[in-house]
Specification:
The protein is mainly β and 85 residues long. The chain is 0% helix and 18% strand.
Length: 85
């Protein structure tokens, strides 16, 4: 989760499908859906945020490239995500 200044406020790393379906078994062009839960800190102010989503190799921690990387960091930027209290 990132703020308007692109500061990372919190994140979550995990293996897709809790590691039960290795990425090497995915078909090319397959649509993959996964659920990630973020626990927001109680003092997070109401605002519009964005999510940065990416994948990396577990053995090297190198980010996997995106075909259309407008972020410059191999991350898909989603948002705005409006958080209110």
């Amino acid at each position: 989760l990132r703020d308007a200044n692109n500061n990372t406020l919190l994140g979550a790393d995990h293996q897709p499908y809790e590691g039960t379906v290795p990425t090497g078994s995915w078909r090319i062009d397959a649509v993959v859906r996964d659920v990630v839960h973020l626990t927001l800190p109680p003092d997070l102010p109401p605002d519009d945020y964005k999510l940065a989503v990416g994948m990396y190799r577990l053995d090297t921690l190198e980010r996997l490239p995106l075909l259309d990387d407008s972020s410059g960091e191999n991350a898909l930027l989603l948002g705005p995500v409006s958080i209110s209290q």
